[in-house]
């Protein structure tokens, strides 16, 4: 049966709190009888949280505060502003939850504008499609397809399995304990990723990257920050246009580059290849001592420290085989290059 909750129902006393703050929902609607499988949310100025954590009663909570920093609006004042300037709809039918908060017109007085956010508790298998123009997005304990975007807030993802695609135009990204297919992009914030597995793509245009305990195929890049990675197992393709790169305890294939910094990389095990390119900084590469590799190392000043080498060495290059040869290790640097094995 179709269940629709419209703005008029907001006047019902049972749904209203006497004062609004970030911890008290303006409205709570039970979803226990709805068997929600798909969550669709659109809001113009608030944050969105969707959780599939066990032990929570399925429900949707609506949080409303003043955009001008006033979080103590009375229920009457909120109701008045909603009726004058906003449309708020919550619709549940055929396994779908649709929650929408939108402006009635474009010229709302900012002093009377509202931030309308949602916290939604559903079963773990629920999929999401979420959009907000001015708040953060939080997802946890979900599996399935998750698509979400914000124009001005951060993204937080924890314990999510499946297809994960999120974008933000002006916030940071934090993802942890998640796996399968992860694609997260920000135009102006840092990214941290930990304990994740699968195909992982992380992109920022203006922040740093911090990667820890990742497995799979990882592509992580930044246009204006440093890169720090540790305990990576798989294939890592990473690069920055404006910072240094530090990689520790890497097992697998590595492609690392920077246009304006140094690169430090420590390999536990070399996979199919290692490729390092530093346009204007030094390179410090440590390779596993017993593994056979083919070396092609070039720079302004090149040094190699290790045993079992056969090939050619001079001030600006080291080319040859170590321990009989193996995967290609290719290093390019415009500064000093040091390789230790």
From TrEMBL:
Keywords: Signal. InterPro entries: Toastrack_DUF4097 (IPR025164). It comes from the Bacteria. Residues 1-19 form the signal peptide. Pfam families: DUF4097. Transmembrane segments: none annotated. Residues 179-297 form the DUF4097 domain. This is DUF4097 domain-containing protein. It comes from Mucilaginibacter terrenus.
């Amino acid at each position: 049966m179709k269940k629709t909750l419209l703005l008029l129902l907001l006047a019902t006393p049972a749904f209203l709190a006497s004062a609004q703050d970030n911890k008290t929902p303006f409205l709570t609607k039970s979803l226990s009888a709805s068997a929600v499988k798909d969550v669709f949310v659109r809001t113009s100025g608030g944050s969105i949280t969707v959780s599939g954590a066990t032990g929570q009663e399925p429900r949707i909570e609506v949080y409303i505060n003043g955009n001008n920093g006033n979080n103590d609006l009375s229920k009457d004042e909120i109701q008045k502003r909603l009726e004058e300037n906003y449309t708020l709809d919550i619709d549940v039918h055929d396994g779908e939850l649709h929650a929408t908060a939108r402006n009635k017109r474009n010229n709302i007085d900012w002093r009377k504008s509202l931030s309308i956010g949602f916290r939604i508790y559903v079963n773990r298998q629920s999929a999401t499609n979420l959009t907000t123009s001015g708040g953060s997005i939080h997802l946890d304990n979900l599996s399935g397809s998750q698509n979400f975007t914000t124009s001005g807030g951060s993204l937080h993802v924890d314990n999510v399995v499946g297809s994960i695609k999120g974008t933000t135009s002006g916030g940071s990204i934090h993802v942890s304990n998640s796996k399968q297919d992860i694609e997260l992009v920000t135009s102006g914030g840092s990214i941290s990723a930990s304990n994740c597995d699968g195909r992982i793509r992380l992109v920022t245009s203006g922040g740093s990257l911090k990667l820890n305990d990742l497995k799979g195929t990882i592509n992580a890049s930044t246009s204006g920050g440093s890169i720090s990675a540790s305990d990576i197992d798989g294939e890592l393709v990473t690069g920055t246009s404006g910072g240094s790169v530090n990689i520790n305890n890497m097992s697998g294939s590595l492609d690392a580059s920077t246009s304006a910094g140094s690169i430090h990389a420590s390999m536990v095990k070399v996979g199919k290849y290692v490729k390092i390119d530093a346009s204007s900084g030094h390179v410090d590469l440590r390779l596993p001592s017993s593994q056979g590799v083919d070396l092609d190392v070039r720079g302004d000043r090149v040094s190699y420290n290790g045993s079992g080498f056969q090939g050619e060495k001079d001030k600006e290059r080291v080319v040859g085989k170590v321990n009989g040869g193996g995967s290609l290790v290719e290093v390019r640097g415009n500064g000093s290059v040091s390789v230790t094995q």
